[in-house]
Amino acid sequence: MPASAPTDMVAGVTSSRDWDPDLDGATPPPPDALGRLTALLDDDLQATNRAIVARMESPVALIPQLAAHLVAAGGKRMRPLLTLASANLCGYQGTRHVQLAACVEFIHTATLLHDDVVDESVLRRGLASANALFGNKASVLVGDFLFARAFQLMVADGSLEVLRILSAAAATIAEGEVLQLTTQNDIETTEQKYFEVIRGKTAALFAAACAVGGVIAESRPEECAALADYGMDLGMAFQLVDDALDYNANTAELGKTVGDDFREGKLTYPVLLAIAGSNAEERAFWQRTIGEGEQNEDDLATALSLIARHDAINRTIARAQVFTENANRALSVFAPSELREMLRDAARYTAERRF
Asked: 10 Å Cβ neighbour count for 342?
């Protein structure tokens, strides 16, 4: 086992690696890229789902009841999938990756429960959110329960390095969420600050999910570092695309409503780009609607128009694709294999979903 995984897995605003436009960039990913990866790891994923359900059991009836609602809501299990894929890529033989994949999903789900309370969301993946059904108090407390379960799984694994990586990610996620809260209505937020937010609240868990797969396989330090880099850049791309989808008509296919981020006053990348290129009249609009939270029924249409005027969606996707290609370049330290190429396809698919 390596002495340590990379300590800077959550550092830096963008990847330090140069973008290589020739690295798979001209070839579109298969339309079912994520599905193919899921199918390849189906046995491990089924085992992970069983571990998740088992660990959600509690004599306190509300906990499994609320947990069952979350399981029914579905989701691609992308973060645990990355843990399973990373371990398999490194040749791991055993079952630790299944328990750690469940741990990663518990951390992610706990943050979703807390986020929906903070954002006062009423939908999650097209269904009523847990807080809408069970109330804010239950959602916060069950989120706490899932965090506790995650730490139990970390301790049960027995690796201090795994514990270090995942506990650091949990702390970084909380920091990212608090930082987002402090910048939520501030139209003076810089691009650097925005990247700091999404690095914390989204990309850190992607990086950790990948890194622990290499650690339990006792991979070389450079391979663990490459997995963390892949996850970090993939997470950055994932959040950028998620930001763009909020202002895209196809968002409804994902169970979301167009303009949710706008209504919540979030400074996402498309809005930052539109603000950066705005004239005085446009800036006044963003100050009123985002900065001061004063919105009327026509404002979303105006926001969509301004975002289109500044080509902010295409520019956001282009930035996501840079992160995607950097993620795929990180995997070059691994020998060519079907799984490596599936991970690359899944990364490129992430930057193109629903566009």
From this structure: 22
18 in any annotated domain: no
Task: Provide, for the chain, the percentages of residues in helix, strand and coil under a 3-state DSSP scheme, each rounded to the nearest 5.
Answer: 70, 0, 30
Query: What CATH number should be reported for the domain holding residue 172?
Result: 1.10.600.10
| CA atoms within 13 Å, Cβ hemisphere of 252 | 1
In a domain, 12, yes or no: no
8-58 confidence digits (pLDDT tens): 333 333 333 333 333 444 466 677 888 899 999 999 999 999 999 899 899
What are phi and psi for residue 265, nearest 5 degrees? Answer: 75, 30
Domain assignment of residue 167, given as a range: 33-350
Measured distance CA(80)–CA(61) in Å, rounded: 26
Give CA separation, 293 vs 20, 29, 204, in Å.
41, 39, 29
Domain assignment present for 4 = no
Structural domain count of the chain:
1
Distance in angstroms between the alpha carbons of the first and the last residue of the chain: 41
DSSP state of 288: I
pLDDT digits (tens, 9 = 90+) for 250-279: 655 555 678 888 988 889 999 999 999 999
Residue 318 CB partners (closer than 8 Å, separation 6+): none
